[in-house]
Write a structure and sequence with these properties.
With about 220 residues, the chain is an alpha+beta fold. The longest helix is centred in the first third of the chain and has 14 residues, at about 60-75. It has helices at about 35-40, 60-75, 110-120, 160-165, 170-175, 190-195, and strands spanning about 10, 20, 30-35, 45-50, 55-60, 80-85, 90, 95, 135-140, 155-160, 215.
């Protein structure tokens, strides 16, 4: 087997599509880009897990290329596609590591990406949605008053609301939070993917015990 895998995307985003990674015990552990998933498949350290009706099947790289040929013919719109010089292959939605059985991490990192996902890019004071560059992070109890940077004390806020609130609490500023900030039990970014029809196959691997998935680029 050659050491090179010359994949070429049909679109700029095909190799950047998200792929859910399971450990050997079929527990979700992280999300990777499709290009990394293909490397794992090519090195035979992972296999594709394909959800089919009420069950699922597993495929190595070679058998997945054969399945892809069928799906390219009969259901091309359901998949993202890349191609090599010899064949086209569907981007898998889920892969399973063959020798990794560690448990998923249980702590969701507090960073801008997860915070904005938790609040759905919605200002928690005025309730309007904004693009990420138009949002800021507000400490409900201001840091100048001893407020900590922890999940229950930080929210998304638009620039206007953040300036209006200033160094006061919401009550002092005459403002109300549209919902109480809480620490997520699972990665908020994963939840946004799971509601997308394209990633529906993730859901059965993301039950309450396994929604502690940490994203990695």
């Amino acid at each position: 087997m050659s050491t090179a895998l010359p994949l070429v995307p049909h679109s700029a985003s095909a190799l950047d599509a998200s792929v859910l990674v399971l450990n050997r015990l079929f527990m979700a552990v992280r999300v990777v880009r499709a290009r990394h998933a293909f490397v794992l498949l090519w090195k035979q350290t992972a296999e594709v897990v394909s959800v089919e009706d009420e069950s699922f099947a597993t495929y190595d790289f070679t058998s997945w290329t054969e399945v892809s040929a069928y799906r390219r013919q009969f259901e091309p719109a359901k998949h993202d596609w890349v191609h090599t010089v010899r064949f086209e292959i569907a981007v898998p939605r889920v892969i399973r590591l063959l020798s990794y059985d560690r448990l998923p991490k249980t702590r969701v990192r507090l960073n801008r990406r997860n915070l904005f996902a938790r609040d759905s890019n919605r200002c928690q004071y005025c309730g309007k949605r904004f693009r990420t560059p138009e949002l800021s992070i507000d400490h409900v109890l201001p840091r100048s008053r001893g407020g900590r940077t922890v999940w229950p004390n930080v929210v998304c806020a638009c620039m206007k609301c953040n300036v209006r609130k200033g160094g006061r609490t919401p009550v002092e500023a005459g403002m109300r939070l549209i919902r109480e900030p809480v620490q997520p039990r699972f990665s908020p970014v994963i939840s946004l993917h799971a509601v997308n029809e394209k990633y529906r196959s993730w859901k059965q691997f993301l039950d309450a015990a396994y929604w502690h998935v940490e994203l990695r680029d």
